[in-house]
């Protein structure tokens, strides 16, 4: 009999995170359904073959044995083992009241945390010992599976022309965060225009869907033979095609680094030794030229960072997540009860219009 698994989502980024996991569930002959919380998800992103459940009662009737969440919270009244797969790598944002990194805040919702690599696992293991109501298993990040198993990428190269795909020049991918305070997209437009006029590199540009429309329009207007702007909700094919990424504070930087490819940033707020950061746009060209040589002093630091952040390059993180989930279902550990937050429960019941107890 097919097992039932639920994907509980509240943001559009969940699609790219969970679809590799969906593929693995279905490969095993089991069933997946999706449930959307709130209004931030664009339902047009659902594929025709994907099952959506309309309300909490439909979720309960579906009888999921486990629910996977690429976020921070899930209501306690949603049935099934609650598994947090994370929505990204460790960030730098901290809580003002105590300086705690938001990546490590425990909100008393989950039974199992699936971590990406030692830098995340080590801290979560300490939290596991402290709280004693959840388990932690290092699995890798399911979102990264297609980056390493290219058979999972269905639209690689679709964004660029056949002629461009045959072009053997190095490809520079530029992306920027949508946050006006941290974005360098507008400031770098003159530099990118100038550098792209040179024929030594081919330029691809893509932005977060929330990027200011005026910035998007400016880059669209700047397109020419060596500079292509691509609007997409899936930058993976572009990342696989590129040889180097130019950015600022975009979360895409970490994913690109996991591909063992160099990164150059402009005014990154948290510069690190495994990428090249500049504060003067005039230094971008020489930094790109240097990084494209893949110098050992840079690539060795990148290797060390990847080994701590996401050491899995086999494209099997989804399989490990499912195995860890099934093991916890088959061999339930002795854990304390999760703390019950009445106010949060009432708020979520109101939000989801569900009042059965």
Automatic annotation (TrEMBL):
Entry-linked Gene3D superfamilies: 3.40.50.12580
Pfam families the UniProt entry points to: Epimerase_2
A GO MF label: transferase activity
Source organism, top-level taxon: Bacteria
Keywords: Isomerase, Transferase
Residue ranges of every copy of the UDP-N-acetylglucosamine 2-epimerase domain listed in the record: 125-324
Transmembrane stretches, start-end: none
InterPro entries recorded: TagF_C, UCP028458_glyceroPtfrase, UDP_GlcNAc_Epimerase_2_dom, WecB-like
Range of residues in the leader sequence: none
SUPFAM superfamilies referenced in this protein's UniProt entry, alphabetically: UDP-Glycosyltransferase/glycogen phosphorylase
Family note: Belongs to the UDP-N-acetylglucosamine 2-epimerase family.
Alphabetized PANTHER family for the sequence: UDP-N-ACETYLGLUCOSAMINE 2-EPIMERASE
Annotated protein name in UniProt: CDP-glycerol:poly(Glycerophosphate) glycerophosphotransferase
Taxonomic classification: Bacteria, Pseudomonadati, Pseudomonadota, Gammaproteobacteria, Alteromonadales
């Amino acid at each position: 009999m097919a097992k039932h698994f639920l994907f509980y989502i509240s943001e559009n980024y969940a699609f790219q995170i969970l679809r590799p996991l969906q593929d693995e569930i279905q490969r095993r002959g089991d069933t997946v359904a999706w449930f959307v919380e709130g209004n931030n998800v664009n339902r047009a992103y659902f594929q025709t073959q994907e099952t959506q459940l309309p309300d909490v009662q439909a979720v309960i009737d579906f009888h999921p044995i486990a629910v996977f969440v690429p976020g921070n919270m899930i209501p306690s009244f949603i049935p099934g083992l609650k598994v947090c797969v994370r929505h990204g790598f460790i960030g730098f944002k901290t809580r003002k009241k105590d300086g705690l990194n938001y990546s490590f805040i425990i909100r008393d919702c989950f039974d199992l945390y699936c971590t990406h690599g030692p830098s995340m696992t080590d801290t979560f293991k300490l939290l596991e010992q402290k709280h004693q109501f959840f388990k932690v298993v290092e699995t890798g990040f399911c979102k990264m599976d297609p980056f390493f198993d290219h058979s999972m990428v269905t639209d690689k190269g679709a964004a660029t022309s056949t002629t461009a795909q045959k072009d053997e020049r190095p490809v520079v991918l530029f992306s920027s965060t949508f946050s006006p305070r941290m974005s360098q997209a507008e400031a770098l437009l003159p530099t990118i225009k100038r550098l792209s006029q040179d024929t030594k590199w081919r330029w691809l540009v893509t932005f977060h869907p929330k990027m200011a429309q005026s910035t998007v329009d400016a880059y669209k207007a700047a397109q020419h033979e060596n500079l292509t702007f691509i609007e997409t909700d899936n930058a993976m094919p572009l990342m696989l095609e590129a040889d180097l990424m130019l950015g600022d504070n975009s979360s895409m930087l970490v994913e690109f680094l996991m591909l063992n490819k160099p990164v150059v940033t402009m005014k990154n707020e948290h510069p690190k030794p495994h990428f090249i950061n500049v504060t003067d746009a005039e230094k971008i060209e020489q930094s790109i030229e240097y990084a494209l040589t893949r110098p050992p002093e840079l690539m060795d630091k990148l290797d060390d960072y990847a080994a701590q952040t996401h050491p899995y390059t086999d494209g099997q993180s989804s399989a490990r997540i499912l195995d860890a989930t099934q093991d916890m279902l088959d061999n339930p550990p002795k854990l304390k009860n999760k703390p019950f937050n009445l106010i949060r429960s009432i708020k979520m019941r109101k939000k989801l219009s569900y009042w059965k107890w």
